[in-house]
């Protein structure tokens, strides 16, 4: 390091700092080929055009095979835990295999990586330093062999990703430099980030996320081990129903037995015909549960909770339902145990590899993206017999899953607004939960026209039977009637938010849930965001309800005992004459104005800005009931009272 590069504006500083120079400028050597941080290199080795041959007519869609090597080398002084490297592929790459690494978003290969992807080390996730290993490159470096297909460019040209960066926190990467077949970047620790992780620690701290999954090995033998898997929901608004959990076994393991959950398919073919059958000669494979490389695991029904053979695991057997912790902490977890058999060369008590590429889904239409398992401090388990001693897991890994909101998905619920000061109800938005015009082309309706305002009593009538009343009401109010008429909301659940009263010291609202679907909704919950009103929350009468502690503008509601069932739509009392009736639940909520001075309930502060039902965000009307003329107030109090009466009668 003869000529160290540092830019100084004055020689005085230079002289003063001379003695400090080697330290200050240590990580920025003048020779650009020296990297004293994390060196990432992407080398394009070879490739060729693949059939079908589209050249020369259609060069942009011509496919090419590519083989490349991604190398990550730790030349720094601190061990790099759980390395992650982003490779910004941009030639419509389809990755077929990657040695020594997995995709950090949990996707199994082959996978579409056209938007770039993050790689994580597997089976070795940590890169040691030269100091720790006396320069053993095998421990300081990860070499990932990549094979895939790319489009539009390939040999003899050299397609290189325009962007490669280290995705670990606490490092800064400049733009990569390209030379011949290689692009490389040297990432240096960000001096502004003080990391607690020292070279000595072997373990990363637990991370937060919407959902976390622990993989705790609680017993280990030469050829098999027992692992406990615990899924915990941390998101206050969301739930899972009928969860499905997937992962990839990386070392040909198979599941011999299980408690608290089941594989969706019991399939032992891979064992009997595969290497496992060959190795475990004479093993009773007929009772083995799953030999799939990527099993799907589902929960057991409630009745199995106390089944001595299949259940008896705390937090097991929830029929696939995991509630938000804000609703019931004891039901916000699901746990099960698996007995895993290993294959050579892993037949050693200490040789434990967690499965990779985790994915969890549920019928609540949210997508979760799960990272790779990270080794964490062994979990402490309370003694099952109640003795005041804890047992420690042999090894623990944590998988963190965050919700990714699919933009294209339509809501499943919608909200209508009404108030004592205006007799027109603002119904749910047209097509709030989607409109499928293909299924019923004869029934022409407009998907863009705003909905017709309704009289209060027609909220209880299914959309297809409302039209007559809505039209009468429009005529009475001398409103224009569009042609074609607006389509319905098509939501399985709708929620009416009614501002019931507004006086000097306080105000009240009434929330009514309608189930228009074919099945009962058990253990429902809803979260209502009111930007200004929540500090004034006083009481809710028929539901359980409380402001969320970690969000000061949201009230969380759930059915109290007797109100936790939102029954399905059913026939009217006289099916020939009466339309079908939705299941309903209703409660009044009261607020004081003492803690929210200046609140203007009618002008909007009394109406929610966001509503969630069972974990999904609902569609909200775009307009609020107008309070321009309060003359109709008396009659609307009357009509809302009728609605209340109707509902009370219906609930009997
Ligand atoms: C660089 O890529 C070309 C193909 O485009 C290949 O022929 C050559 O062997 C590669 N060089 C190295 C050093 O891998
Ligand atoms: C990929 O990135 C390079 C460099 O930024 C750019 O020149 C090229 O057009 C991009 N290719 C595609 C298909 O986006
Ligand atoms: C890539 O990004 C585009 C635009 O953001 C998105 O529409 C597309 O679904 C992405 N593709 C994949 C495979 O993630
Ligand atoms: C490279 O990708 C990373 C991660 O997606 C991004 O933060 C960064 O801005 C990109 N750099 C460039 C030069 O595009
Ligand atoms: C770093 O470690 C110290 C002492 O162990 C602890 O107090 C502090 O909270 C840690 N900081 C972070 C960001 O983890
Ligand atoms: C998941 O979300 C948590 C908290 O919002 C965040 O700290 C974490 O970085 C996220 N993890 C991933 C893999 O996106
Ligand atoms: C299981 O046993 C516990 C304790 O004996 C009991 O409280 C619980 O109701 C039982 N659960 C089922 C589903 O039978
Ligand atoms: C368990 O889930 C299944 C599938 O969704 C459902 O049909 C069944 O009614 C549920 N059982 C109980 C007891 O909730
Ligand atoms: C198991 O692994 C440990 C540590 O890697 C090693 O010391 C031991 O000899 C191995 N045992 C067997 C039976 O291979
Ligand atoms: C969840 O994943 C399983 C297995 O991958 C799949 O069979 C199922 O259709 C998925 N369910 C939903 C609701 O996406
Ligand atoms: C609510 O929290 C936000 C930030 O969390 C804060 O800015 C706001 O002042 C709080 N409002 C009240 C009424 O406490
Ligand atoms: C309600 O609408 C449905 C579907 O259009 C129709 O079959 C039914 O007869 C209507 N019921 C009444 C009471 O009008």
From TrEMBL:
Keywords: Cell membrane, Glycoprotein, GPI-anchor, Lipoprotein, Membrane, Signal, Transmembrane, Transmembrane helix. Residues 1-27 form the signal peptide. Its main location: membrane. Residues 412-625 form the COBRA C-terminal domain. It is found in: Cell membrane. The keyword Magnesium does not apply. The chain crosses the membrane at residues 631-650. This is COBRA-like protein 7. It comes from the Eukaryota. GO terms for cellular component: plasma membrane; side of membrane. Belongs to the COBRA family. It is a lipid-anchor; GPI-anchor. It holds the Pfam family COBRA.
């Amino acid at each position: 390091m003869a000529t160290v590069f540092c830019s100084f504006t004055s020689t005085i500083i230079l002289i003063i700092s001379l003695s400090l120079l080697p330290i200050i400028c240590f990580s920025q050597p003048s020779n650009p080929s020296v990297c004293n941080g994390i060196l990432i290199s992407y080398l394009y080795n070879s490739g060729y055009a693949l059939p079908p041959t589209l050249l020369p007519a259609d060069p942009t869609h011509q496919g090419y095979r590519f083989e490349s090597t991604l190398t990550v080398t730790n030349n720094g002084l601190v061990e790099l835990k759980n390395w992650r490297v982003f490779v910004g592929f941009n030639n419509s790459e389809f990755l077929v295999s990657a040695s020594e690494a997995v995709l950090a978003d949990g996707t199994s290969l082959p996978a579409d990586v056209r938007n770039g992807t993050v790689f994580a080390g597997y089976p070795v996730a940590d890169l040691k330093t030269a100091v720790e290993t006396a320069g053993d490159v095998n421990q300081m470096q990860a070499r990932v062999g990549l094979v895939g297909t790319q489009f539009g460019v390939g040999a003899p040209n050299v397609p290189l990703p325009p962007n490669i960066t280290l995705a670990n926190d606490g490092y800064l990467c400049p733009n990569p430099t390209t030379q011949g077949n290689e692009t490389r970047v040297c990432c240096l620790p960000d001096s502004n980030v003080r990391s607690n992780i020292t070279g000595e620690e072997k373990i990363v701290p637990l991370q937060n996320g919407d959902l976390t999954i622990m993989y705790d090995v609680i017993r280990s033998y030469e050829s098999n081990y027992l692992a406990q898997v615990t899924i915990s929901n941390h998101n206050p608004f969301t739930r899972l129903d009928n969860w499905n959990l997937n992962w990839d076994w990386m070392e040909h393991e198979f599941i011999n037995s299980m408690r608290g959950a089941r594989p969706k398919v019991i399939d032992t073919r891979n064992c009997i015909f595969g290497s496992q059958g060959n190795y475990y000669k004479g093993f009773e494979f007929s009772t083995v549960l799953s030999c799939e490389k990527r099993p799907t695991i589902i929960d057991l029904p409630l009745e199995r909770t106390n089944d001595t053979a299949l259940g008896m695991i705390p937090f097991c057997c929830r029929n696939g339902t995991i509630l938000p912790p804000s609703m019931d902490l004891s039901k916000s977890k699901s746990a099960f145990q698996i007995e895993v058999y290993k294959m050579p060369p892993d037949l050693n008590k200490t040789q434990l590899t967690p499965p990779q590429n985790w994915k969890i889904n549920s019928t609540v239409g949210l997508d979760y993206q799960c990272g790779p398992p990270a080794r964490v401090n062994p979990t402490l388990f309370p003694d099952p017999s109640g003795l005041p001693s804890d047992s420690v897991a042999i090894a623990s890994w944590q998988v963190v899953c965050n919700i990714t909101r699919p933009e294209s998905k339509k809501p499943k619920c919608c909200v209508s607004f009404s108030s004592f000061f205006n007799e027109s109800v603002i119904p749910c938005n047209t097509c709030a939960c989607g409109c499928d015009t293909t299924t019923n082309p004869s029934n022409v309706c407009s998907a863009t026209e705003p909905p017709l305002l309704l009289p209060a009593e027609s909220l209880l009538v299914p959309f297809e039977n409302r039209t007559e009343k809505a039209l009468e009401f429009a005529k009475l109010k001398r409103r224009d009637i569009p042609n074609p008429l607006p389509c319905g909301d098509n939501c399985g659940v709708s929620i009416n938010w009614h501002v019931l009263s507004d006086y000097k010291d306080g105000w009240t609202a009434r929330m009514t849930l309608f189930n228009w679907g074919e099945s009962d909704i058990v253990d429902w919950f809803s979260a209502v965001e009111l930007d200004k009103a929540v500090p004034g929350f006083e009481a809710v009468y028929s539901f359980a309800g409380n402001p969320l502690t970690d969000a000061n503008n949201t009230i969380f509601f759930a059915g109290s005992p007797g109100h936790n069932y939102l029954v399905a739509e059913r026939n009217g009392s006289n099916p020939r004459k009466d339309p079908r009736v939705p299941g309903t639940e209703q409660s009044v909520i009261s607020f004081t104005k003492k803690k929210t001075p200046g609140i203007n309930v009618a002008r909007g502060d009394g109406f929610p800005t966001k509503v969630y039902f069972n974990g999904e965000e609902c569609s909200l009307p775009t307009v609020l009931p107008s309070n321009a003329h309060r003359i109709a107030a008396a009659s609307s109090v009357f009509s809302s009272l009728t609605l209340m009466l109707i509902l009370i009668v219906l609930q009997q």
